[in-house]
Amino acid sequence: MTQLWFSKAKGDLLAAKYLEQAGDDHLYVSIAFHCQQSAEKAIKGYLTYNNKRVLKTHDMEKLLKTLHSIDPDLSAELGALNDFTNYAVLYRYPDTELEIKPLTRNKIKEVIALTDKAFTLLAKEIGGG
Question: What DSSP designation does 1 have?
Fold first, then answer.
């Protein structure tokens, strides 16, 4: 099951990178969504590897708290993923656009880099890096 989570996470990360190459700001929300999904699935893969129950949630704070119970240092290093929860929900719907900051090219590059880092670190922890 661990490898299935990581395979799905890798697919979302590759999708985000592919969409980013298009250079179209209309895709920023989709890119951020795929990054959130990648990070979420990589954490769930890591939790599965460590025999922790996987929560059916997009809430990155909850997932990071469970990760913290296994490896506090890794959880702290990936703490910025906490902000990714909004990419799973708020940014996806037009009626919430007034409540959130617009995504910029620089922010998208930052989000992709953090997702890549999270995937790499978590995969390395399970011997897949």
Answer: -
